[in-house]
Design a protein that fits this description.
Strand content: 25-35%
Catalytic activity: a quaternary ammonium(out) + ATP + H2O = a quaternary ammonium(in) + ADP + phosphate + H(+)
Keywords: ATP-binding, Nucleotide-binding, Sulfate transport, Translocase, Transport
GO molecular function: ABC-type quaternary ammonium compound transporting activity; ABC-type sulfate transporter activity; ATP binding; ATP hydrolysis activity
Enzyme class: translocase
Largest sheet: 6 strands, mixed
Number of strands: 19
CATH superfamily of the largest domain: P-loop containing nucleotide triphosphate hydrolases
Structural class: alpha+beta
EC number: 7.6.2.9
Helix content: 10-25%
Distance between the termini: 57 Å
Amino acid sequence: MHIEVRGLNKQFGDFHAVNEVNFEIAKGQLIGLLGPSGGGKTSILRMLAGLETPTSGDIIFHGKRVNDLPPQERGIGFVFQNYALFKHMTVYDNVAFGLKVKKQPKDQIRDRVMSLVELTGLKGFEHRYPHQLSGGQRQRVAFARALAPEPQLLLLDEPFAAIDAKIRSELRTWLKDMIERLGITSIFVTHDQDEAIEVADEIMIINKGRLEQKGSPWDIYKNPQTQFVASFIGESTIVSQVDRLPGFEEAANWTGTQALIRPEYIEIGKRHEFRMPSATVEGKVKHIHFRGSEWMIEVEVGDIKLITYRSLEKDVLQPGDKVNVLIHRAYLFNDNDTWIMENKLKEDPMPIHI
């Protein structure tokens, strides 16, 4: 299903939950609606589903305006955060529920249900009740039930929120594989960056009811278009007076400019570890944190605090150690624009200290 949203607004009294949102989604894409709690993600999802009525704007499915269509006529499957399974029904009957409502023939219902039971990895659990299943299994039942009527659009509201971390990771991979096989257009809401980046073909960043940016996870991470997106995606440090950092003095030419510096754009170590030590600045290790596959290190450069990573293969640094810090690049932003600035001193022969 191809989806187009034009000038979508939703107000609850004086509160503007969704504010002039516009986007298109191609058929078969898996889209992640990502943003902070209360940003408007679920309101957008519920309007697409027909569970909320837009204050203004148009929702268009395959060229047809559907604002006035009831949910059951939109060709949508909806997976809720809390599963919303019928406790008194078996797995089989939960999955079959929508098909029975449509009064499909029993043999067709049986074939469809058993096909979905196998697809979702629930074969052998057909006669169990929800309380006899794990959280991951219950969520798979919810997926199967949503897919049973063969919807053209699958909507998922924080589908992994109620599941523990290990199972959540497994379900992410499973969901992406399943949706790719089915080719069904899908939109899921999440506030988990890792989840959106791992699962989605494209991400839409929603903040304060507005669409901040839409694009692939890589594009959004590498080329944030707004200050909010730059600070929301990934770990980073905001530096107010970036022109005080060696190599970034040109930032003083733009009034009100700040910088966002990501950990992977910072190298730290002893002077002998750098091919171009003259491009570095002195710093002091403040804290170190073991992250399993690497160290996360907080380092102070003057009164500027930065965060970076260091390989376990390198010598272990300790709090208080004096180190050299190389900042390769930074995202600069002001009220009007965002751009990337490279360190201008990588070829400068003179060491600099601040």
